[in-house]
Design brief:
- By secondary structure, the protein is α+β, with helices and mostly antiparallel strands.
- It is 51% helix and 18% strand.
- Strands 1-2 form a two-stranded antiparallel sheet.
- Helix 1 packs across helix 3.
């Protein structure tokens, strides 16, 4: 199972898509939480985009690092 989310910040809409048949080490709940956190951070990413940098791979990488830290904390991992 894998997933992705696309957000429309102006309309405050989000579309979650899950994909079966892919190998993942994480539970569906953890994958879902990861995608929800993308929605949580969408305003931050939009603000970064307004300054011309959100598509930069470093910004995307850091977004994922923050999400993984939050998920690991919730899971009780260091």
């Amino acid at each position: 199972l894998s997933a992705e989310v696309s957000c429309d910040g102006d309309g405050r809409d989000a579309i979650f898509t899950s994909h079966t048949g892919t190998e993942q080490d994480y539970s569906p709940e953890r994958i879902g939480l990861h995608e929800v956190l993308h929605v949580l951070l969408s305003d931050l990413m939009d603000a970064t985009a307004a300054h011309g940098a959100a598509v930069h791979h470093d910004v995307r990488r850091e977004e994922h690092r923050v999400i993984e830290r939050i998920v690991n904390y919730i899971d009780g991992r260091p």
